[in-house]
Please model this.
Amino acid sequence: MTTDSIIEPAPAKINLALHVIGQRPDGYHLMESVVTFAAAGDRLVMSPAATDRFGLSGRFAPLLQAEDPATNLVLKARDALRAAFVGKGLPTAAVDIHLEKNLPVASGIGGGSADAAAALRGLQRLWGHALAAEELHMLALKLGADVPMCLAGRPLLARGIGDEIESLPHLPAFSCVLVNPLKAVSTPAIFKLLTEKNNAPLAPLPSSAGRTAGWLSWLSSARNDLEAPAKNLVGEIGEAGKLLLRENAAMVRMSGSGATCFALFTDPGLAEKAAAALHAARPDWYVQTTETFAGTV
Model:
């Protein structure tokens, strides 16, 4: 076990496209989604301690402080990973975990799932043990359908309920603006409002590796099947999209089940200008410029 603190980022997850293509008998929806991650996100600091502790800071920390700790995914990840190691006879000392909560809660960009994934990555380093890839994947899946993709933390194609992951090494980076009207959205509520569960799958992915124009064209022809029901539930999602479309964005869409919308830009300067305009129009909203990650071959 290391005696040093471990700092682990929890990047925002962005569903660049999300097609709902069916539903399993157990109620889980089947999907195909092109997912990337952004430099903007939460941050975890994990340190050896005499007893387990958990602390919060950041703009959105008060929302988590009001919740029952038993529902916190970071603590669930800590406990699940510890149980797995203890079951193998491996020591897991007490740990102080501090979560810097920079992303809105229940916002469609994987905040809680990204935090849980960061805890799994960081605690393996802190405790000096590692689970086999398949065992870690299954542990992450038990925490939530989005946790395995957040554990990967790289551009990917997700299928099934989000647990079948294929790397997208040629997906380029994009300048991006994230906008959230600070209205929490319940994912189950959005799926309940989804009237059509068997939609067309994604088109074949672009063949031109790393070419931004080709990917933008392909993404523009895709969709997020959860966007329409989310707009019906939270009208500000539609307003956010309209405001972004005024700012010369190459593409605008909602991520996940909302309410965060994103805009992709071909130039960082355009993204900064758009963010400034959004801040001026809606100073009470969450507005963040960022850069998405490029795939790595």
Remarks:
- The chain has two domains: 6-167, 175-291.
- Residues 86 and 92 are 7 Å apart (CA to CA).
